[in-house]
Amino acid sequence: MNGMDARIKERLDRCPQEVVQLYLEIRRLLLEGAPGGIEERMWAGMPSYVAGERFVRLIPFRDHVNIEASAVARHRENLAGYAVTPKGMLQVYAGQEIPEAVLREIFAQTLEE
After folding, report:
1. What are phi and psi of 78, to 5 degrees?
2. Domain 6-112 carries which CATH code?
3. Which residues, 6 or more positions from 44, have their beta carbon under 8 angstroms from its beta carbon?
4. How would you classify the pairing of strands 64-68 and 54-60?
5. In this structure, are residues 95 and 17 in contact, taking their beta carbons and an 8 Å threshold?
6. Phi, psi torsion values for 61, nearest 5 degrees
7. How do residues 69-106 score in pLDDT, each as one tens digit?
């Protein structure tokens, strides 16, 4: 968790190990595909990845990670088997396969809009 915002690390320290691993893998995908200048920070108590006015939030819970990104809605048909909250956040549960290719597209589209 080197280079991670200390407040985000503190939040992850309260999560089960399988959720921490899930979070770190999703975070890796996000950072690998992010345009230059992305900033990792807490915003309103939620881990946020910000590029100008655009953002992605990765919110860890006890058994899953919510992903808030504006492009999630455009990819719902490619996310069969994954829950999407009424507010449009993708939920990926511990033990569930991470939809890497779709997430890379979602992250790129969200941060480049």
Report:
1. -90, 5
2. 3.90.1150.200
3. none
4. antiparallel
5. no
6. -125, -175
7. 999 999 999 999 999 999 999 999 999 999 999 999 99
For residue 56, what are its two tokens? 């992605």
Q: Is the pTM of this model over 0.70?
A: yes
Does the pLDDT value for residue 1 go beyond 80? no
> What is the chain's Cα-based Rg?
13
Cα(101)–Cα(66) distance, rounded to whole angstroms?
17
> Per-domain residue ranges for the chain?
6-112
Q: In the chain, pLDDT over 90 holds for what percent of residues?
A: 83
Within its chain, how far is the Cα of 89 from the centroid?
Answer: 10
